Amino acid sequence: METTGSVTDRAGMRQSIGRDGRPSHAVYRWFVLLLVWGAFLMSCVDRVAWSTIAAPVGNSLSLKVDMLGSFVTAFYIGYVIANVFGGLVTDVMGGRKMLALAMIPLGIATFGFSFTRNLHTGLAIQFVMGLAGGADYSAGVKLISSWFGRERGRALGIYATATSLSVVLTNATVPSMSAAHGWQSVFQVLGGVTLCWGIVCAALLRDGSAASENGSKITRAEISILLRNRNLICLALAGCGALWATVGFSAWSNALMTKAHGISPILAGSIIATFGLAGAIGKPLVGWLLDIFHGSAKVLSIVCMICFAGTMVMFGQCSTIPAFHVLAPVLGVVAFGTTPLFLTQVTWVSGEKYAGAAAGLTNAVQQCGSALAPIVVGGVFAIGHSFQMAFLTLAMGPLIGLIALLFLAGQTQQRR
C-alpha cells in the first residue's frame, strides 16, 4: 500500500495518506495486526506441538521421563538468544523484513524436525527453530506499536492471544493427528503452513511510521539507557516469573496428568485446551481494561500475579477430571492475562522508537523462565513423582514476579 505523506491524528499516531489524499491507516492497521497475529500464532504452535505428544512419542525416541521437556528447553535457549539481537535489529531494518527472516527459516526447521530419530538431533533442530522464531515476537510488537496509538493495549492483547490459542489448537488437533498419521506428519504440515505464512507476510506487510523515521543504528548509549531503566527491569523479571509458570504448565501438564493420574493424552489435551481458550478470551479483555485504566496498570498486574500463583497451587491439589476442567480455564485467564499487561507497559516505557529493542530485550529475560521451567519441573517430578510438588515449583514463578512488580517506580503510563 503506497503512501505519499502523513498526518498526525489526535491519538498521537501518524496516519498514512494515500494518493487520493484519504487516510488509509485506520483500515490497513487491522490488516497488519491480522498478519502479525497469524505469524505469532504459527510460531507458538510450532513450539508447543511437541509438548502435547511428548509422553507417547518420547518412548519411540528412547527419552527418559525427565528428558521429555528437554526439546522445549532447547527451543527456548535459541529463542532467548534470538530475542536479544532480534529486537535490536528490528528497530534498524523494520518489522516487515525481520518477520520474514524469522518465519521462513522457522517453517523449514519445523519441517526438518519430522526427521528426528534421536535426542541429540532433536535438541539441535529445536535450538535452530528457537533461533529462527525468536525474532518474530519483537517484529510483531514493533509493527503494532508503529500502527496503533491509544488502542495499543487492545491490539497487543489481541496479538497476545496467539500464545493461548496455540495451546487450544495444538491440544485439540495434534494428539489426534499424531495418533492417526504419525507425529512426523504433524511437523511436516506445521512447517509447510509456517513457511507459506512467512511468504505472505513478506509480500503484503508494510512498516509503519516508526520504521520509516528510524532506519538508523541504535547507539550503545541508547541500549544502555534501556538496560538500566528500572521499570523495564521490573517488567522483565515479572514476565520471567509469569512465563516460568505458563510455559512450564503448557509443557508438562499433559504429561503429568497422564503419568500421575492415568488420564489419556487426548483427554488431557482437551482439558488444557480450555486453559488456552480462556486465555485467548481474557487477553483482549485485559488489554481493553488497561487502555481504560492505564493509571492502574501496576495494581492490575499485582492482582493478576497473586491469582496466578494461587490457582497454580490449587491445580496441583486436584486429582479428578471435573476439578481439572473447572480450574484449567481460570488458570488460563490469569496466566495469559499477564502478557498484555506487561507487554503494553514495556512499549509505554520505551516509546515507539525503541519498541522493538525493548520488547526483544525484556522478552529475552522473560524467556529464561520458559527455557528453565520445563527441565526443572521434569527433574522435580522425576525425583519425587509428586504431582503437587511439580505445580508448587511452577507457582514459585508468579510469586517471584509479584515481588518484582512491587518495585515498579510510579506509573508506567503511555507516552502521548
TrEMBL record:
The chain crosses the membrane at residues 27-48, 68-86, 98-117, 123-144, 156-174, 186-205, 232-253, 265-290, 297-317, 323-343, 364-383, 389-409. The keyword Transmembrane helix applies. PROSITE patterns: MFS. InterPro entries: MFS (IPR011701), MFS-Transporter (IPR052952), MFS_dom (IPR020846), MFS_trans_sf (IPR036259). Pfam families: MFS_1. SUPFAM superfamilies: MFS general substrate transporter. Keywords: Membrane, Transmembrane, Transmembrane helix. Gene3D superfamilies: MFS general substrate transporter like domains (1.20.1250.20). It comes from Paraburkholderia franconis. This is MFS transporter. GO terms for molecular function: transmembrane transporter activity. Residues 32-413 form the Major facilitator superfamily (MFS) profile domain.
